[in-house]
Amino acid sequence: MKLIADELKGYPKIEFKWFERGGLQFQVQFVNKDYVAQHELQQELQQKT
After folding, report:
1. Could you tell me which of 5, 28, 38, 46 has the fewest CB atoms within 10 Å of its CB?
2. Enclosing H/E stretch for 25
3. Residue 13: CB partners within 8 Å, gap ≥ 6?
């Protein structure tokens, strides 16, 4: 996972999240920061109308 995290440093618009579920289970997420920001902005605009 460290290798992946190090490689993603070259992609500042992608966030890397790691969750341990216990034992051998884990979850990895790759989040497009631009998409999240755009989605939050759309929600704010919808709430104002």
Report:
1. 46
2. strand 25-32
3. 32, 33, 34
Report H helices in the chain.
2-8, 33-48
Instruction: Write down the pTM of the prediction.
Output: 0.55
User: Length of the chain, please?
Assistant: 49
User: pLDDT tens per residue, the chain (49 residues)?
Assistant: 788 888 888 999 999 998 888 888 999 999 888 887 788 888 888 888 7
Is 26 in contact with 18 (CB distance < 8 Å)?
yes
